[in-house]
Amino acid sequence: MKPLSDIEVLDRPVWHSLGGPQRSLDVGQGAVRRLDPRFGPFAAVSPGAEDTLRDHMLGGEVWLVETDAFPAPQGLKVLREAPLLQMIAEGPIAAFDDPEIVPLGEADAAQMADLALATEPGPWAAQTWRYGQFHGVRINGRLAAMAGERMRPTANLAEVSGVCTWPEFRGQGLAARLIRKVMAGMAARGEVPYLHSYATNASAIRLYESLGFRARRAMVATLLGPE
Predict the structure, then answer these.
(1) Which of 30, 107, 109, 148 is the most exposed place for a label (fewest CB within 10 A)?
(2) Tens-digit pLDDT profile for residues 136-167
(3) What is 87-217's CATH topology?
(4) pTM score of the predicted model
(5) Structural contact between residues 148 and 162, judged by C-beta atoms closer than 8 angstroms
(6) Is 80 exposed, middle or buried (0-12, 13-18, 19+ CB in 10 A)?
(7) Can you tell me the distance from the alpha carbon of 115 to that of 123, in angstroms, rounded to the nearest whole number?
(8) CA–CA separation, 109 and 125 (whole Å)
(9) Cα(9)–Cα(86) distance, integer angstroms
(10) What are the extents of the domains in the chain?
(11) Minimal CA–CA distance to 163: which of 126, 107, 206, 208?
(12) Distance CA 169, CA 174 (A)
């Protein structure tokens, strides 16, 4: 079988991340790869073994990010389907220094969770911020916006994720600055940034295009839960 290229693995980002650079976060077994639920609800399954997914729900729901909608296996039901646009950065990425952008860590976890759960940039769990480095901007002591890193399907690809801003601080260019900071960090490590946007979020897609991302392909996020 012809080995997959770095770009082709993006067709199954969860599968390759949990079987590759982030395998330490995989709590699945056999044909199922399941992210430790403390980090998030993502899972992937080997083709033909879909019915085994119900044994890896760990009492909750799971998100699958694939090229097509994921039919509900036996014992599960589809709770939500969300069309996504997967985008990848092209061209050189310049170093970026912004004195107002600060690294975030454990002391910021509660404010990060409040922001993510209120604005819903994607699934968020107690340890999601530990995926990789997150950065934020504070205004009057409050975390106004943040962006960070998530899935790494190969050592050379890294996902920009968790990009969100409180509504009252939008329109100030905070997201663009934070994404540039995250991208610069990835590029310094020899990684190519990629990301997922909800396909209906035209303003976000325009922002990503202005930062050097191009559309790679359509994807679908499927949320499954018990029947």
Answers:
(1) 107
(2) 999 999 999 999 999 999 999 999 999 999 99
(3) Aminopeptidase (3.40.630)
(4) 0.94
(5) yes
(6) exposed
(7) 12
(8) 10
(9) 12
(10) 8-85, 87-217
(11) 208
(12) 8
